[in-house]
Amino acid sequence: MDLCHVPATREKGWYLSLMAPNVKGPNYAWLDPSRLYCHPQGLQDCVADLLQPFQGDVIDMVAGIDAMGFILGAAAAATLQKGFLAIRKAGHLCVQTVAQPYTDYSGRDKVLEVRTDAISPGLRILLVDQWVETGGTMRAAIELVERLGGVVAVCVPTGVAAICMENSEGGKWIQERYKCSHCVPPRLQPCFDQHQ
């Protein structure tokens, strides 16, 4: 892995080529972005691209979804100089929580939790995850934030960010209702939607 090479011209999404394809079979995600996170310039440019649509917007806090959303979410929070909230899979938080069941991209039923004291009414949240495939996980996170009075709505300038937002039914539902940002250029979107 070459962590020093940076292309002479860095177009939006240049770092997507750093991601590695699945070699372990259907029980795993089709693409692994963790090598992108190891590349200093790749990670910086990815975060900058995710945050660009929100320039000038008021964001009070960044929330990342367990587990890979923690990486991008914490990087975004540090860049914005805002706090970071971890939205966890059920059973990991030792404090009072609210929970939301959901079905993930693989069809498995799961539950997300968030601590009840971190979000006050009207708090503007930027939700970050690594990927929005079917939209189930992100939608559950949105429901948790909104149930606690946080705002992730189109009428207020905060929203949702992920490396890729697939044009699935769930992905479209999110994009129609929330301000969204992702890193995949339009010419490559069909390849990502078809997992190629």
Explain the overall architecture.
Its main location: cytoplasm. It holds the Pfam family Pribosyltran. This protein has 196 residues and is α/β, with parallel strands linked by helices. It has one domain: Rossmann fold, CATH 3.40.50. It contains six helices and nine strands. The chain has a seven-stranded mixed beta sheet with strand order 5-6-4-3-7-8-9, sandwiched between helices. α2 crosses α3. The mean pLDDT is 92.
Quick summary of this structure?
The chain has 196 residues and is α/β, with parallel strands linked by helices. It is built from 6 helices and 9 strands.
Topology at a glance:
Layout: E1 20-21, E2 31-32, H1 34-38, H2 40-51, E3 61-65, H3 69-80, E4 83-89, E5 97-103, E6 109-115, E7 125-132, H4 136-147, E8 159-165, H5 169-177, E9 179-181, H6 189-193
Parallel strand pairs: 3-4, 3-7, 7-8, 8-9
Antiparallel strand pairs: 1-2, 4-6, 5-6
